Each structure stands twice: as C-alpha cells, then as structure tokens.
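Bump. Still looking for Transmembrane 9 superfamily member structure tokens.
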Amino acid sequence: MQRLDGQRLLGAVLLSVLLCGVSAYYVPGAYPAEFQVGDLLPVYASSLTSFDTELPLDYYSAPFCKPAEGVKRIANTANPGTILEGIRIENSPYNFSMKVKQSGLLACPSGSYGPLDSKEVKLLKRLIDQHYRVNLILDNLPVTVYNLLDETEFLRPGFEVGYKVGDKYYINNHLVFNVLVYQTHGEYTAARKQYVKSELADIKALGVDPAYYMVVGFEVSPCSIARKAGEDVEAIVCGVDGDSHITPQEIREGADIVFTYDVFWQDSKIKWASRWDAYLRMPGGKVHWFSIVNSLLVVLVMATIVAMILVRTIRRDLAKYESLMVDGTGPGDARDEAGWKLVAGDVFRAPANSAMLAVQVGTGVQILATSLVTLVLAALGFLSPAARGALLTAGMLFFVLLAGVAGFVAVYVWGLMERSFTSWQAVCARVAVYYPGINLLVFTVLNLVIVHTGSTGAVPLGMYFSLGCAWFLVATPLTFLGGMIAVRVPLLDWPVKTNQIPRHIPPAPLSANPVLLFLAAGVLPFGTMFIELYFAMTSLWLGYFYYLFGFVLLIGALTCVINTEIAVLCTYVQLCAEDYAWWWRSFYRGASVSLYIGLYALGFLMSSMSSLAGFIPIFIYLCYMTLFVLAFYYAMGALGFGASLWFVYSIFKAVKAD
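Sorry for the wait, here they are.
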C-alpha cells in the first residue's frame, strides 16, 4: 500500500510539472476570440529582430512612440522558451476598434517623437543598416508585409524599420494596417451564443450589427512621410498612385518624427482554425516528398543488404564453422573459414574508459527520447507557433523529466561492460553533470558575450536560477533514481566467456580501416536528412516560420533506421577483420553523421548566412550550431552503439547455440 501511495505521489508531482509547463503556453489569441463592432483590439509590440546580427532588441530601445499609459510587459506571454529566444512582448501605442475604419491616427500622445539627438540618429541608422524588423502582434497574429491571400511560398513576419537611399536614411513612420476578419455569430462562445439567441430581436430593432468577428490576418504597408508636428494628419495609403509627391521622413539630428497609422478592415473567408496556414506555408512541397521517397528507397536498399548479411552470410559462416568443428579441421583452416568467430573470447571484453562510454550512451538515449516526444507533440499540433516559445519550453521540460532514462541506461550499460554495478553512483553523477554542464558552459560564455550589447537575447539572472533549480533539484535526483532502478535489473549474461589474456588484433585490411569505416558510416544517414535540414535551418536562421514537424519526424525516423543498419554493417566488417574493439568504434561510427552536419553548417554560414557581420553574430551562430551538432553526436552515437550491441550479442548467441 505504501509503495502504491509513493507511485501515486510521484505521478502527481510529474503531472503537476507537466501542467505548469503547459500553462506557460497560454498567450492572448491562442484560443478563439470574437469581437463586436467597436470592440477595442490592442496591438502588442514584440522584440526587434535582425537576421544580420541574430541579436533581438527591445522594441522601446529604439526611438519609437510609447503608449500614454506607459510601457507594460505582457506577463502571460513569457515562458522559458520566449525568454531564451529573446522575445519580449509589451503594449504598444497602436489600438484598433473592430470594423471601424481609422485614418491618420497619431501614435505618439504628444503628437511626435523628437527632436532626435545624435545618439538616436546613430541608433536608427544602425538598425536600418542591419535590417532590423519591427514585430507587432494583433490577437496573437504577427504582422507581415506580405499579402496573406496570395500563394506566397515563404512569409516573413514584421517590417523594416526604414530604408536607405544613397547616403540618406528614412524611417517608416506611417503604417497602413489591413486586418482580415471572419464573420461569426458567436458560435465559439457558448455564453455569447445564448445571448445572441435571446437578444437577437432587440439588437436588430436597435439597428446594431449582431455579428461577431474574428481576426484571421494582420497585414501592413509601411512608408515614410515627412510631416510637421501639430499639423492636421490626412489619410494616405502607401503605394497608391497620386501619392508620388510625398516627401519621405529623413533621419537627421533635430528632426521631429510624426508616427501615424491607418486601419482598414477586409472581410475574409479564412476561418479561425486556418488563420495560421498562410504564415506556415513552406516552399518545395514536391521537394519534401521527393526527399522522403528518396530516403525510403535508401532505407529499403540498406535493409536488403543488412538482411542478406544477417540471413545469408552469417548463416553461411555458422554452417562452415559447424562443419569445421565436426570434421576436426585444424585451427589454421578454421582461421581462414571462420572470420568473426575467432574473436569470441574477446568480443565482450570491457573497453577502456567504459564509464565515459556509458555516460555518453545514456546522454544520447535521453536526447533521442526528448526529441521523439517533442516532435510527436509538435506533429500533432500541440506545440503550435501561436504559442511562442512552446517548442523550446517543451524540449527543455522533457529533457529534464527524462533524466531518469539517461541514468538508467548509463548505469546498466556500464554494468554490462564491467559485469558489476559497483560505484554506480559515480556514473550517475557524471551523467547529471556531463552534458548539461557542457550546455550551461557554452550558454554562459555566449551570454557574457551578448549581455553588453543590450540585446533581449541576454538571459536574466532569474532564468539562470530557474535553470539551475531544474538541473539540481529535478534532473539530478531523477538521474540517480534511474540508476537505482538499473542496479535492480539483472545483468544480461554474455553468450560466450571472455579469455583472461587479450587476443592480438592484426592490422586491419583496407576494407576494414577504422577511418574509412568512420567516414563512410555517416554518408547515407546525412544523405537521408540533408534536404529537410536545409529547410529547417533556412527557417531557423532566416526568420521564416517552420511547422513541417511531420516531415521532420518521418525523416528523423528514416535517418535512425539507416544509421542503425550502417552501424550493424560496419561492426560486422570490423569483426570479420578479427578486430574485437567494437565498443567505442560503434559509437563513433553512429555519431559520424554529426561530422557532415557540422561541415554543412559551416557551408550554410558561408553561403546563406553571408550577411552576418561582425564577431558576435558569427559567434552566436557557431555556438548554437555546436550545441546542435553535439546533440546529434550523442544521439546517433547511442543509436549506433545500441544496434551494434544487439547485433554482436545475437550472432555470438547463435554461435553458442550451434
């Protein structure tokens, strides 16, 4: 009974942690919201972003109008993911009234912002040179300069701070907003639905529109217009013929900038459930399917090859080995005919530094499990981009909760190699410190580099404290709990005994050269995933939305399958060369795909990220891609090791049976 109560208590704790993580995903507009004509719709300001610097800035760090009530942080939009991504959402001076056309509204309560001093002029020019974009949010939809009704392949949120012509700089101080709305009748809100039914006659008698509207698109046309403070502000639609006489607002010292905006409303057939579809459009649908079909063919070919090895070659080897033993053939002939069976007395000999190998395998399994759970939830739609920071928050949450898996796997693998669980606590301690410590070290160095720039990408001390608590108070105890469970699981008996004296390993032939096997092992897994990797990195680093997690999940599964098959094949080739030191090499060969990902990341930096200027942006890119490649290294290495362990155990168990 006490054990059952303990299990219930543990389940309740884990459930509460999950609920806390899920509650962090709530943001205004994440659920259907209906508005009547005249209802106030506040526009929120998000961080300024640039893909030339990768350093987000606070919206009000630039000389923009501030709301009359003062700047306020929107608290319920903050979660660990948004904080780490540098997203800060605040109120803005822009406010709309549903279905009410508004023209020439002043954004600044005082009428204008200015006069600009030399520091502000220098800042605005730098923002324009570095292509910073202004990000506004209406009912959780990001603003965009693209036409949402067009079939645009890529859609980038935000609009440019300004532009440069020759040696002069101009600011986009006039915004023409176009809001797409979908008409409803309160069907998404039970209370409003009942109200409409009971009061519909009275509403119609008063001449009031009983309809409700939902925001399904948020577009903007920014332009620069020079105006004098205090003058009447007329409505001007940017880009309309006849407005060529407009003088743009130059950025110069002493200038008073009048920030104005117009609001237009457009009825749309886009429903609320589909309003993010335009934002999430991705190019190359045929290319994605071609990539998947190509990967499937590669996996089928490799599966056939591995099946031939397992079914035909190994059975043939076993048959020859059995006939040699029955006929009493001498050991010299047995060497020629037996191959991998000659290392039976050494194949399960514990490798050097087995504890570190076990730690890396446990870490890799934890990363694999975290990736699987996160991608499944994302593919099912639970981690929508509408909940900013949800994907990163979920990834960190599951990584912490799955620390017990890392502890269990590391301790059990170490016990298999050493045939004992003595000092298993030391293995758990290394698991708890090793990979999280590497991430925290890189993250700390990166934060120290960023913090003096004034970027919102600099993580505050409160977040550091929260990460430390999650690490030491949750992940570390769970790691030791996994280790405690592992020591209670009986060790798997090896099918053959290990000799006391190690066998001499002959020089490897060219076909079994360790370096060649390492380089060859990562080619096919990388070929399986590199097309999807291109789209993912393009979206991640160039500011486009990415939501093809179903493709990622499928390509990831195919990559794991092909990696497993290659690992088995290379281990077989190594054993046939009478080289029984397969433990570490199987891990390295599985992880070799990370080498090609790293080289691809460098190529992507030189080609697609050539706009990065300065040390800090390049350093940020290299740090994050290093962590990404490192995660692949441990995950794919653990997969290759696990497949090789299963393969070696299976074939020598078959030898014993014969």
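Residues 354-489 form one domain.

Edit: fixed formatting.
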